[in-house]
């Protein structure tokens, strides 16, 4: 009987060890799984840093910011054409806007994306395969204020949704990588009060008056808007 009890105690001890090892193994799997899950969330957040959730016909999908491709030239030209027609009705000639701008913008963007300048960076906001907006910037283009933001346009139906801000943040990041201590500037039509308010809200200052010698020969009154330093904007963005 004593021998039997001793054997049973040994058996119970071995069983307890197996149970504990099993518990430890299961807990290890659980914690490793949780670590992978948390890590995947972190990676997803990093990969979606420039993306934004937008509602489209009652459904939610991601808007992403990416570098423009040569195949985007037509969509970018269409957005550019429509934006000019909406913005420059009182600044450029009606004949130029209606008859010349579409083909001219097509040629401009085909050339820019097929044969980009070394300091050029073009990004687009895309959702569900549709280009919603774009920005084009040239690093260290302006000797006084640094990089030059040549274009930032968003389709009218998608304005006031944060797309312009997302494009601008990407411009800040890229310019800061190219010229860490440099600034950023752009020309804004003096009649475009909405654009002026947008850039002021993003930290730009109205530096001085200027003019834009438009392709149709018109002389358009403008303002230089300037960010003297963009490092802090990148950090806060």
Describe how the helices and strands are arranged:
Layout: H1 2-47, E1 52-56, E2 59-67, H2 73-87, H3 94-114, E3 120-127, E4 130-142, E5 146-154, H4 163-178, E6 184-189, H5 193-201, E7 205-213, E8 219-227, H6 231-236
Parallel strand pairs: 5-6
Antiparallel strand pairs: 1-2, 2-3, 3-4, 4-5, 6-8, 7-8
Helix pairs in contact: 2-3
Description:
With 237 residues, the chain is of the alpha+beta class. The protein is built from 6 helices and 8 strands, in the order αββααβββαβαββα. It has 2 domains: 47 residues; 176 residues, Aminopeptidase.
Entry summary:
The chain has 237 residues and is α+β, with helices and mostly antiparallel strands.
